[in-house]
Amino acid sequence: MKTLKLLALGVLFVVSSSVQSQVSVNVNIGPRPVWAPVQGYSTVDYYYIPEVNAYYDTHASIFIYLNGNNWVRAKHLPSRYGHYDLKKCQKIALKGYRGNQPYSHYDNHKNHYKSSKDNDHDDHKKSKSNKNKGKH
User: Fold this and answer.
1) Residues of the chain under the 70 pLDDT cut
2) Backbone phi, then psi, for 73, in 5-degree steps?
3) Which of 26, 66, 84, 127 is 20 to 30 A away from residue 121, measured at CA?
4) Which ranges constitute the DSSP H helices of the chain?
């Protein structure tokens, strides 16, 4: 009986040592920029930033912006956007988008997510037209 127990224990040891469980998770998210939202950053692939009409790729840690007729990928925005404080800019998380060309929906994004600079310009036009309403 003692031999049978030792034999069973030996078989159990051999079987358990040959069985391996391996879990591999590969999440390739770049470091979060200081201007990016903390909450939800790791679950979003792209942000659209209406004030600069650009996208930010969270995996590659790069901006995607329109330069003439071409979309450019770069670590930094061009100098023409240097006066923008990205911490204060609106950032739209493009949840559910899968692919590597978020700009394929640019016209929709630009029309749907007006930048604060566009809203300020629209407000200025409205207030100007309201002032002129009484003048005939």
Assistant:
1) 1-2, 4-29, 115-136
2) -110, 125
3) 66
4) 2-18, 106-112, 116-133
